[in-house]
């Protein structure tokens, strides 16, 4: 087979940009992966012959649909729903659903692209997908949320299935929303199957799925530190976000005797100089999961500082940073501030929270840096284990799942380390490059074996 030479990064990206106008997040995610993978392809030309990176940069299917529902006042409301089925080479499409006003096709395509690499890194047989809606859950009543979830599923059910595409939660979608969507899927299809993960424990959910993403991100940090004979004991940790991922990152930091100092939401961040302890964390969990209030209440209750106006916590001096809110929440100025304050490591609980120039700045300062597709893979990994339990109609014990999650995070660390060697460095690993290449190799191998389809 003959093929022209491997494209340069600029050549490759100019094609991606032409095909995806007005989609900056998607272009950003592909740009970062291509920067690491193209030099690897240069050394392994058969990937080029089969156009594997080009094929991976195109979702296999992108569905967009109208979601019509009625609010409590009787008004008819219209939102847009999406499901991006990015790549099913190594297993059925798998990935979360996001409800947030900022959701559009670019955001979901970036998330589905990242998910494909992430799921490959877990070692479990899951392809990549993502979905969601521009629906804003803030201020909605319980019944409005339920009616929206049902209306969303009225269309989504055609595109998903336990062996086709298995959605889960993400921003704005937690156990409550998954329950409503599952109920509607079951009503429409009359089938009780593991078509969604993150379900309640009474109807097919898995132990520790709720905790898995945050715990996993801290396990990944622990694994990077273990590799250089260090640990989290007594280390100060700055966390952004206060949702599912942030809460459980804080919890695991506490289990490992670290000191979490901050939490945030879109209105600003709290800085607790005494540290957030388990009791204060319980307040955050109740505040965010049950009462759905604002993080400023923490400052009032415990006398901590509150920085408003959407401020981010990166000005607080720390050993380790865990961005756990959303994409592009840590930029180059933040990175400079963190490094000058003595930062030692970052694990991304969120997807693509750090800009590329910020990553490069921190890596140049030899800060350990774990990208989201590796560090936050614990959530989807336990989702994969939920799928296995559902297929076998059994529930494994919590101890077993705790053990498997830790094992999977350590394995992901080792997969990234394998491809993350840095020339001239004995100890320092480039986990970004390692994750991108390890994910690529797995998906590309499966695609190559399955022919040009
Ligand atoms: P939640 O909805 O539980 O929490 C999201 C948190 O981030 C809230 O504190 C929210 O504040 C804040 N946030 C969201 N959007 C913005 C924004 N545009 N600006 C500022 N703050 C914002 O979501 P999760 O904790 O589940 O998800 C957090 C991140 O982790 C996302 O990037 C998600 O993709 C990623 N992730 C989640 C996984 C999971 O299992 N849930 C798995 C892997 C990754 P506010 O309430 O004010 O909006
Ligand atoms: O970004 C992610 O990995 C998730 N939101 C979880 C996906 C899943 O299928 O559990």
Order of helices and strands: HHHHEEEHEHEHHEHEEEHHEEHEHEHHHH
Number of strands: 13
Portion in helices: 40-55%
Distance between the termini: 17 Å
Number of helices: 17
CATH architecture field of the largest domain:
3-Layer(aba) Sandwich
Shape assignment: globular
Taking pLDDT < 50 over at least 5 consecutive residues as the criterion, the unreliable ranges are none
CATH topology of the largest domain: Rossmann fold
Average of the residue pLDDT scores:
97
Q: Largest sheet at a glance?
A: 5 strands, mixed
Hey, roughly how much beta strand do the residues contain? Answer: 5-15%
CATH C-level class of the largest domain is Alpha Beta
Total discrete domains: 3
Q: Which key phrases capture this entry?
A:
453 residues; alpha/beta; Rossmann fold; 3 domains; five-stranded parallel β-sheet; 17 helices; 48% helix; globular; binds NADPH dihydro-nicotinamide-adenine-dinucleotide phosphate; binds (2Z)-2-iminopentanedioic acid
């Amino acid at each position: 087979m003959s093929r022209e030479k491997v494209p340069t990064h600029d050549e490759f990206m100019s094609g991606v940009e032409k095909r995806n106008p007005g989609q900056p997040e998607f272009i950003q995610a592909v740009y970062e992966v291509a920067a690491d993978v193209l030099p690897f392809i240069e050394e392994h030309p058969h990937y080029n012959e089969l156009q594997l990176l080009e094929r991976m940069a195109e979702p296999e299917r992108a569905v967009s649909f109208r979601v019509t529902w009625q609010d409590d006042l009787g008004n008819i409301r219209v939102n847009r729903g999406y499901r991006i089925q990015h790549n099913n080479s190594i297993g059925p499409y798998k990935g979360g659903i996001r409800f947030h006003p900022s959701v559009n096709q670019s955001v979901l395509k970036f998330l589905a692209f990242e998910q494909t690499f992430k799921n490959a890194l877990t070692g479990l047989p899951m392809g990549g997908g993502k979905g969601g809606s521009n629906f804003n859950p803030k201020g909605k009543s319980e019944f409005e949320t339920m009616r929206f979830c049902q209306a969303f599923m009225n269309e989504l059910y055609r595109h998903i299935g336990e062996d086709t595409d298995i959605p889960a939660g993400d921003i704005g979608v937690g156990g409550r929303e998954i329950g409503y969507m599952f109920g509607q899927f079951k009503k429409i299809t009359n089938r009780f199957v593991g078509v969604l993960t993150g379900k309640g424990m009474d109807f097919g959910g898995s132990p520790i799925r709720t905790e898995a993403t945050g715990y996993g991100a801290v396990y990944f940090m622990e694994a990077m530190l273990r590799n250089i004979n260090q640990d989290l004991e007594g280390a100060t940790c700055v966390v952004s976000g206060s949702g599912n991922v942030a809460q459980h990152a804080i919890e695991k930091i506490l289990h490992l005797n670290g000191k979490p100092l901050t939490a945030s939401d879109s209105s600003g961040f709290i800085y607790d100089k005494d540290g957030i302890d388990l009791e204060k964390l319980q307040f955050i969990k109740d505040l965010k999961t049950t009462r759905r209030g604002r993080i400023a209440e923490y400052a009032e209750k415990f006398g901590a500082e509150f920085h408003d106006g959407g401020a981010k916590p990166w000005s607080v001096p720390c050993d380790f940073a865990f961005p756990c809110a959303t994409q592009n929440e840590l930029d180059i100025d933040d990175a400079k501030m963190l490094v000058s304050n003595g930062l030692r490591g970052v694990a991304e609980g969120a997807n693509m929270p750090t800009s590329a120039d910020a990553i490069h700045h921190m890596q140049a300062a030899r800060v350990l840096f774990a990208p989201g597709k590796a560090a936050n893979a614990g959530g989807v990994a336990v989702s994969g284990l939920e799928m296995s339990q559902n297929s076998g109609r059994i529930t494994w014990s919590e101890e077993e799942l705790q053990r498997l999650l830790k094992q999977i995070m350590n394995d992901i660390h080792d997969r990234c380390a394998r491809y993350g060697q840095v020339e001239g460095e004995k100890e320092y690993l480039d986990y970004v490059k390692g994750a991108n290449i390890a994910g690529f190799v797995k998906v590309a191998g499966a695609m190559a074996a399955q022919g040009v389809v």
